[in-house]
Amino acid sequence: MKKERDILNNIYILRAEKRWTQKYIAEQINVTRQTVHSLESNKYNPSLKLAFEIALLFNKKIEEIFTYENKGDS
Amino acid sequence: MKKERDILNNIYILRAEKRWTQKYIAEQINVTRQTVHSLESNKYNPSLKLAFEIALLFNKKIEEIFTYENKGDS
DNA sequence: TAAAAATGCAATAAATATATTACATATGCA
DNA sequence: TGCATATGTAATATATTTATTGCATTTTTA
User: Fold this and answer.
1) Do A68 and B50 touch (CB under 8 A)?
2) Nearest residue (Cα to C1') for D17?
3) Would you say residue B49 lies in a domain?
4) Which H helix or E strand runs over B9?
5) How many domains are there within chain B?
6) Residues 9-28 of A with CB under 8 A from B
7) pLDDT tens, A4-52?
8) Nearest chain B residue to A67, by CA
9) Nearest nucleotide (CA of A32 to C1')
């Protein structure tokens, strides 16, 4: 069995800390609000460009925002 | 003018250091050799998952392998 | 409390990453 | 030199991300 991993992120938390809206983030990084919403809901694999944009916006490293962990591990 | 950035990577160098083939890398991370080749030729925006897989394989941080820099800056 | 803004969600379209296949050239090695 | 392996490239197919639109519900704020 090959190891499956999930990409997870804590954008929801980071956004709450900053009190930013999804719309605001979307505008800053030039994507739609849908994209931000999908990202936050943690159920897909964004492009590296998008990950970099998010990291730049929050002034963090990609790995401080996104994790790649064994499926099932919470 | 909105700032455009390029995603670049040094996989070619890292691979040379390890003396690995494109085929070998492709097999390790479950993509095709084409994908590895395209990646190395630095002209596109991979998925975050692929970036994580490469980083794991080389045991490095994503940002040690991929950079996101202003277009034109070499 | 009413209006405005923010969020969740869904369907479909558009864009682009990745796979597949194939072939030509280059490079290393017997 | 000749064979095996590695690499560059291209065309087409498939998969997945992202955009677009729209609407319902929740939360904020005047």
Assistant:
1) no
2) A46
3) yes
4) strand B5-9
5) 1
6) none
7) 899 999 999 999 999 999 999 999 999 999 999 999 998 789 999 999 9
8) B52
9) D19
